[in-house]
């Protein structure tokens, strides 16, 4: 009996000793994302929750409430001022004009610093950074460079989560190369291979991106210096150039393959679950009760469907009224005028989980990269209506791949919209194409989430993983592209040819002079 008790005690102690390293290895990780686009926050939040599930102590600060309860995950919400209705109205009034969107960019970048300032000055956040335990890592999103000063206060490295393919401004954080001959500009809707004229236009797109980056950094630097005064904290550029890693929500099967330095890691589809969560009961019944399948309609987190101009809304509703499928529509108010019986309105929906259901036949969307990744992963074809930003180039790529029908917002009528919906629902080539490419998207050595978790822990284990830093980060643009070397070679070539030319002339003159003397 005594021996038995001793064995039980020994086994219990061994079990506790085995558990202890797991508890001790849990890092303290702080996440901040003040993006006005909730879809951007969703991508980062997926990573933060999974880090918590794997035993790390995670705190996430954002403008949005989080209903899901996860152990080790603390959510702090600092609401931002309302903006979506005015933004949506501006987008629809711009009639999908790239020029109008370019003119809107500076104001959008200025406004993006307001929630950063509000969050970092909030009482909740000030209490947070004074906690004695400290943090091992800061994870943040794009358009919030001003929070980099927090990493200096906490003495911890920084990881950036980029919710789409990297723009020049994001590439510059880790000096990632962007060959303009093969990487189409996100605002132009180009795809590879590009003709000479398209590459010329792409060069113009690069110049715009450099202007965009200059305005971006101007407003972010201004916000940073208000929060972290010069002299008391490192310069904005010093911290910006000290980013340890950038995760990009991109995958080579969704766009142009591109070069990456070690500090930039592809995690396309980061927010997509390998195993979908159970659907809310009303949504599940609506989907499974439709013999002809279901269509999901969503304009994403930035655009309010209730702001669609009446003539366009009527065209969409008339199309839905005349089809057999049921529709789930992300709609932001409780009432839709003239709503057909086969349309279900949902203010906030679990998009990824809905797309995972086998009875979903079509996804009508605006072309956000997150939604495209979810549709591709679950093999659902698309009718795309691009509105702004990277949406035209995202949809141009999937249209080229054969699993999307792209309809311009300015061309939307009952006839054109009905044609698009009917074509994708009844032409099997769209579903066959998306199933084929979905296999490519899923075929990886690790899932996107496992990849992100590994590199997150790697950066913490190696105190910022400075050894991954690309040497180009410490070089100027001229040095990084060897323009000084090329200039030197060009000058030396000119000098050598000049010397040879002068020597030949001198020899010729001597010979002529010699002949004259003879």
Write the layout of secondary structure elements.
Elements: H1 2-24, E1 28-32, H2 38-53, E2 57-62, E3 73-77, H3 84-93, H4 98-111, H5 113-121, H6 123-129, E4 137-141, H7 148-154, E5 158-162, H8 168-174, H9 196-227, H10 236-240, E6 245-248, E7 264-266, H11 281-288, E8 294-297, H12 310-321, E9 326-330, E10 343-346, H13 351-355, E11 360-365, H14 369-378, E12 382-384, H15 391-401, E13 404-406, H16 414-426, H17 428-442, H18 448-461, H19 477-480, H20 483-517
Parallel strand pairs: 1-2, 1-4, 2-3, 4-5, 5-6, 6-7, 8-9, 8-11, 9-10, 11-12, 12-13
Give me a quick take on this structure.
It is built from 20 helices and 13 strands.
What does this structure look like?
With 518 residues, this protein is an alpha/beta fold. The chain has 20 helices and 13 strands. It has helices at 2-24, 38-53, 84-93, 98-111, 113-121, 123-129, 148-154, 168-174, 196-227, 236-240, 281-288, 310-321, 351-355, 369-378, 391-401, 414-426, 428-442, 448-461, 477-480, 483-517; strands at 28-32, 57-62, 73-77, 137-141, 158-162, 245-248, 264-266, 294-297, 326-330, 343-346, 360-365, 382-384, 404-406. Strands 3-2-1-4-5-6-7 form a seven-stranded parallel β-sheet, sandwiched between helices. A six-stranded parallel β-sheet has the order 10-9-8-11-12-13, sandwiched between helices. β12, α15 and β13 form a beta-alpha-beta unit. The longest helix has 35 residues, at 483-517. The model is unreliable at 1-24 (pLDDT under 50).
């Amino acid at each position: 009996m005594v021996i038995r008790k001793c064995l039980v005690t020994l086994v219990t102690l061994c079990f506790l000793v085995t558990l202890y390293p797991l508890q001790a290895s849990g890092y303290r990780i702080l996440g901040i994302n003040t993006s006005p686009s909730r879809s951007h926050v969703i991508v980062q939040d997926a990573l933060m929750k999974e880090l918590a599930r794997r035993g790390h102590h995670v705190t996430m600060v954002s403008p949005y409430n989080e209903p899901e309860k996860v152990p080790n995950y603390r959510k702090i919400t600092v609401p931002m001022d309302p903006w979506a209705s005015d933004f949506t109205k501006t987008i629809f009034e711009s009639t999908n004009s790239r020029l109008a969107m370019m003119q809107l960019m500076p104001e959008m970048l200025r406004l993006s610093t307001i929630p950063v300032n509000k969050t970092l000055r909030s009482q909740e956040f000030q209490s947070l950074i004074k906690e004695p335990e400290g943090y091992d890592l800061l994870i943040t999103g794009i358009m919030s460079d001003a929070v980099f000063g927090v990493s200096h206060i906490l003495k911890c490295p920084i990881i950036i989560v980029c919710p789409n393919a990297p723009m020049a401004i994001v590439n510059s954080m880790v000096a990632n190369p962007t060959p303009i001959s093969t990487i189409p500009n996100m605002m132009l809707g180009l795809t590879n291979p590009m003709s000479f004229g398209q590459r010329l236009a792409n060069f113009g797109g690069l110049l715009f991106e450099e202007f965009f980056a200059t305005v971006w950094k101007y407003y972010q630097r201004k916000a940073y210096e208000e929060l972290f005064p010069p002299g008391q904290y490192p310069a904005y550029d010093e911290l910006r150039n000290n980013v340890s890693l950038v995760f990009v929500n991109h995958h080579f099967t969704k766009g142009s393959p591109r070069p990456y330095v070690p500090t930039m890691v592809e995690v396309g589809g980061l927010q997509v679950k390998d195993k979908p969560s159970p659907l809310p009961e009303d949504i599940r019944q609506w989907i499974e009760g439709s013999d002809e399948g279901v269509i999901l309609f969503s304009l994403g987190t930035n655009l309010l469907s209730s702001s669609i101009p009446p003539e366009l809304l009527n065209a969409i509703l008339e199309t839905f009224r005349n089809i057999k499928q049921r529709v789930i529509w992300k709609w932001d108010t409780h009432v839709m005028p003239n709503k057909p019986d086969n349309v279900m309105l949902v203010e906030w929906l679990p998009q990824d989980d809905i797309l995972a259901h086998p009875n979903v036949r079509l996804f009508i969307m605006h072309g956000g990269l997150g939604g495209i990744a979810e549709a591709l992963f679950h093999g659902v074809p698309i009718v795309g209506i691009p509105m702004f930003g990277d949406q035209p180039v995202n949809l141009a790529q999937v249209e080229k791949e054969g699993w999307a029908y792209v309809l311009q917002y300015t061309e939307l009528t009952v006839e054109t919209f009905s044609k698009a919906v009917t074509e994708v629902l009844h032409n099997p080539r769209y579903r066959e194409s998306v199933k084929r490419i979905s296999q490519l998207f899923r075929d990886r050595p690790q899932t996107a989430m496992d990849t992100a978790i590994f590199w997150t822990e790697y950066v913490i284990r190696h105190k910022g993983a400075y050894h991954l830093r690309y040497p180009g980060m410490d070089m100027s643009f001229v040095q990084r592209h060897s323009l000084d070397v090329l200039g030197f070679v060009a000058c030396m070539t000119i000098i050598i040819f000049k010397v040879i030319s002068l020597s030949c002339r001198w020899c010729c003159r001597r010979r002529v002079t010699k002949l004259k003397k003879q």
